[in-house]
Amino acid sequence: MFERILVAVDGSEGSRKALRLASNLQQTCGSELLILTVFRHHSLLEASMSMVRPDDPESLDDSMRSYAKEVAEEAKVIAAEVGASNVRAFVKAGQPARTIVRFGEEHKADLIIVGSRGQGDVQGFLLGSVSHKVTSLASIPVMVV
Amino acid sequence: MFERILVAVDGSEGSRKALRLASNLQQTCGSELLILTVFRHHSLLEASMSMVRPDDPESLDDSMRSYAKEVAEEAKVIAAEVGASNVRAFVKAGQPARTIVRFGEEHKADLIIVGSRGQGDVQGFLLGSVSHKVTSLASIPVMVV
């Protein structure tokens, strides 16, 4: 019933749980599964680090992109282990929630799956702020796992 | 893959959309489908109506329960029209989000489906406050439609 499922992963345990559920649902529905890892540009990261200014913003960007690629690759391995097929993985830079929703629109996904709490969501404090933003912004169904 | 899906309906167009998706997913997964309509007790309603105090709180409770039953019955008809089977409908009084989550736990649901915006969620203002609360409170996956 879902033709194209988008699952967002960030390397957190919550996002791995979301990925496993997405991989099972992919098989049940015979969908295509798109895996997306979003990393923040140094400018966005800087804004969240108050007075800290990295010496070399470009190399910081490279490190974050490289880490995001590792997360996406690990996600492909996990999806295959769970038995998913028809899987593609992507890496994008930007604000997590907006980037996930925009990517879903561009790729005509009909379901977005996210972990309830990802990296950077301090337990009990920001409580899944990315997943909340995604459900607010998306015009398609969003599953919070 | 989902054994027992709980869908919350309140008579809004958003919740009907959630119900139709839940009914399709029920068939894809061969799940049991539980439909729940929650109405507020007069004491909760009073609190949200500032100075207005109903003359006869008990008859107000009866009216709300009766309306909730109609919504639940209509939901069963819609689910059947979409082709769902193995469907049961329930009516409960209480705070919507907490009551939905507690009902899901008690009935061992493994997925909750809610509309992104229900009755009482003023468009663009409270923006799906019930669905946000459900995703925050639930320990099982929640799909916001």
Automatic annotation (TrEMBL), chains A, B:
<dbReference type="InterPro" id="IPR006015">
    <property type="entry name" value="Universal_stress_UspA"/>
</dbReference>
<dbReference type="InterPro" id="IPR006016">
    <property type="entry name" value="UspA"/>
</dbReference>
<dbReference type="InterPro" id="IPR014729">
    <property type="entry name" value="Rossmann-like_a/b/a_fold"/>
</dbReference>
<feature type="domain" description="UspA">
    <location>
        <begin position="1"/>
        <end position="145"/>
    </location>
</feature>
<dbReference type="Pfam" id="PF00582">
    <property type="entry name" value="Usp"/>
</dbReference>
<comment type="similarity">
    <text>Belongs to the universal stress protein A family.</text>
</comment>
<protein>
    <submittedName>
        <fullName>Nucleotide-binding universal stress UspA family protein</fullName>
    </submittedName>
</protein>
